């Protein structure tokens, strides 16, 4: 990632001009999104829109709750989504003072906007939460950063996606682990391993079965399909099976090109490495005792928590990338410190 710092320095005027141009372009496309963009990006949003229109097809589900939230916003929903999009693009570009960083901001931003910010969806809110955390970290205000993490993530877990409680808990655990001394770190890892061994088989099954159900839907019901989808290869209700399935998913999702070589898959894989590598490096350095405490350490732990939890249930490369794309502000925040090391 040091190569991102190569090249001439760009002035604040240049980066702000690029940011303004990106925001204007985004606004124009947003206003014509239904005509210009593929139907695939509107799949989940259409379920929410059905609930907003008064249907009860998904009553009691997270789509219903999201529909109620967006209904409360009312006529301001489109400005709300566009405002998040403009905020994202400004955040990504304003400090991209090298050509490499500018290119990284573009790659991260295009994916995030494409998947999450042309229509109101549950992941639109995740982008906003990531921006709150990243902004607090960028400003060097720990209290604001912690509040931006704890309050929105807790509310999101309660109202929309319960597994976000697992993401939040894992992020806090990783953060604590990077702050412990070597001996305490070993003890903490031992306790975590013991706790994993005591998890009931029913919970292990619940954590993994979502992938198999999603793959079965993609294979037999979805009109879109999923070429890179895969099933869990081992039993779901045992610890060895859980570990085997998790390691297999780690390989399939992060080295998809080994199973499905192709230009599209390689491009998506590169994007994932760009988005996740700075966080992995920061957390690994913290666990090994090499990294210094900084405002970016908590965002790094949060990104890695998202990655780790996603590998429990993501059925294919596209879904994996789509969910992680909402973390673009955190990835960009972490790319900047990496390039200065």
TrEMBL record:
Question: Any idea which UniProt keywords this protein has?
Answer: Membrane, Transmembrane, Transmembrane helix
Q: Organism's domain of life?
A: Bacteria
* Bilayer-crossing regions: 69-93, 100-119, 153-177, 186-204
UniProt protein name: Glycosyltransferase RgtA/B/C/D-like domain-containing protein
């Amino acid at each position: 990632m040091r190569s991102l710092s190569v090249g001439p320095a760009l002035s604040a005027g240049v980066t702000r001009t690029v940011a303004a141009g990106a925001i204007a372009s985004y606004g124009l496309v947003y206003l014509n999104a239904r005509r210009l963009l593929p139907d695939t990006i509107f799949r989940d949003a259409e379920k929410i829109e059905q609930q907003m229109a008064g249907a009860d097809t998904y009553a009691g589900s997270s789509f219903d709750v999201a529909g109620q939230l967006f209904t409360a916003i009312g006529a301001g929903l489109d400005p709300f989504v566009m405002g998040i999009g403009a905020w994202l693009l400004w955040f990504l570009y304003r400090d991209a003072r090298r050509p490499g960083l500018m290119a990284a901001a573009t790659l991260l931003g295009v994916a995030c906007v494409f998947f999450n910010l042309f229509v109101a969806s549950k992941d639109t809110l995740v982008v906003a939460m990531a921006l709150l955390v990243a902004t607090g970290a960028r400003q060097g205000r720990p209290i604001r950063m912690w509040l931006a993490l704890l309050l929105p993530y807790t509310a999101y877990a309660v109202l929309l996606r319960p597994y976000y409680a697992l993401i939040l808990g894992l992020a806090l655990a990783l953060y604590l682990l990077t702050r412990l001394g070597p001996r305490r770190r070993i003890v903490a890892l031992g306790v975590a391993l013991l706790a994993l061994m005591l998890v009931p088989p029913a919970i292990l099954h619940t954590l993994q079965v979502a992938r198999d159900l999603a793959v079965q839907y993609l294979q037999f019901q979805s009109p879109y399909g999923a070429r890179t989808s895969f099933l869990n290869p081992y039993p779901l209700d045992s610890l060895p099976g859980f570990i085997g399935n998790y390691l297999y998913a780690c390989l399939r999702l992060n080295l998809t090109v080994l199973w499905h070589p192709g230009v599209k898959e390689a491009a998506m894989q590169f994007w994932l490495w760009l988005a996740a590598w700075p966080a992995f490096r920061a957390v690994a350095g913290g666990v090994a005792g090499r990294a210094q405490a900084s405002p970016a350490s908590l965002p790094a732990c949060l990104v890695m928590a998202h990655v780790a939890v996603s590998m429990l249930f993501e059925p294919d490369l596209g879904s994996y990338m789509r969910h992680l794309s909402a973390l673009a502000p955190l990835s960009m925040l972490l790319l900047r410190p990496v390039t200065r090391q």
